[in-house]
Amino acid sequence: MMKRFVSDNTLTVNVNRLRKKLAEIDMKDAIETKIGKGYMAHGAS
């Protein structure tokens, strides 16, 4: 199995793009940043 590395900047850019799209459908808080751990997704309520 091939291991892949995603740079921090690539991940940050893509998460920010996703957040903008989610904000358009009133889900701006759907992704939470957990400092030192990563990201947490929250479903619609």
From TrEMBL:
Its Gene Ontology biological processes?
phosphorelay signal transduction system; regulation of DNA-templated transcription
Q: Where is the signal peptide?
A: none
Instruction: Quote the DNA-binding region ranges, renumbered to this chain.
Output: 1-43
Q: Where is the OmpR/PhoB-type domain?
A: 1-43
The UniProt record lists the keyword DNA-binding:
yes
GO MF? DNA binding
Q: What Pfam families is this protein classified in?
A: Trans_reg_C
Keywords for this protein: DNA-binding, Transcription, Transcription regulation
For this protein, the record's SUPFAM superfamilies field holds: C-terminal effector domain of the bipartite response regulators (SSF46894)
User: What Gene3D superfamilies does its record include?
Assistant: Winged helix-like DNA-binding domain superfamily/Winged helix DNA-binding domain
Under the heading InterPro entries, the entry gives: OmpR/PhoB-type_DNA-bd (IPR001867), Sig_transdc_resp-reg_C-effctor (IPR016032), WH-like_DNA-bd_sf (IPR036388)
What's the domain of life for this entry? Bacteria
Keyword Cytoplasm in annotation: no
Protein name stated in the entry: Response regulator
Q: Which organism is it from?
A: Staphylococcus gallinarum
Name of the gene: graR_3
